[in-house]
Amino acid sequence: MRVLVIVKATADSESGRMPDPECMAEMGRFNEELAQAGILLAADGLHPSMRGKRVHFAGKSRSVIDGPFAETKELVAGFWLWQVKSMDEAVEWVKRCPNPMPGDSDIEIRPLLEAEDFSPAFTAELQELKARQSAQAEAGKHA
């Protein structure tokens, strides 16, 4: 199963404070363990919300809201995408993770929806379209 591992934002991450070199080294070693175990699919940190935008949908109309966004506890500072055998395995890996923030922090784990989760709406035609899109995205990574 694939899971998105979400590092929740804190006042420090929203202020633009970068992790210290020791934290970066610890996280680098942890990411290497994930890669060696064949779990790591992707990982990145995000700029503070002051550099972001939100697009609000109301029917057919769209409005753009500039960051920063007020609810720090609802914001994301970074993420991993992992391939694991179970949610329990993901939890065990997160417990081994170095604290990504200088103080208290939270990491949320969410399973990704897979094609079979959309049945019967995920028709053979849509499955074929998704396969083509995935192949194009993969080819783009190697271009």
TrEMBL record:
The family this protein is said to belong to: Belongs to the YciI family.
Alphabetical list of InterPro entries matching this protein: Dimeric_a/b-barrel, YCII
Organism: Burkholderia cepacia (Pseudomonas cepacia)
Protein name per the record: YciI family protein
Domain of life: Bacteria
Residues of the YCII-related domain: 1-109
